[in-house]
Inverse folding.
């Protein structure tokens, strides 16, 4: 995200793991739930559009064979968590 005004990224991934009788297992699917905090000067529409293209660039999705989904969003500065400082 070079030259974009983002200040924080967090994710709460979920997945379904299949365990076989012998104890072996694998993930059947994984869904990432990324949230990117952007500055007031950021282009919120562009940020949302980039979420729809994330699978083309996602290191995780491009590295594993398990289907990886993405359910994400963008939030403006008023919705930043307490631990994220607004840029000066």
């Amino acid at each position: 995200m070079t030259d974009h005004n983002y200040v924080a990224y967090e994710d709460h991934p979920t997945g379904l793991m299949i365990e076989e009788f012998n104890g072996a297992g694998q993930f059947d699917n994984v869904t990432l739930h990324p949230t990117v905090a952007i500055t007031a000067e950021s282009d919120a529409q562009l940020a949302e559009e980039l979420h729809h293209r994330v699978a083309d660039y996602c290191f995780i999705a491009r590295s594993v064979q398990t289907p990886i989904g993405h359910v994400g969003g963008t939030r403006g500065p008023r919705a930043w968590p307490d631990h994220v400082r607004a840029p000066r």
About this structure: The mean pLDDT is 78. The chain is about 15% helix and 35% strand. Residues 1-15+33-76 form one domain.
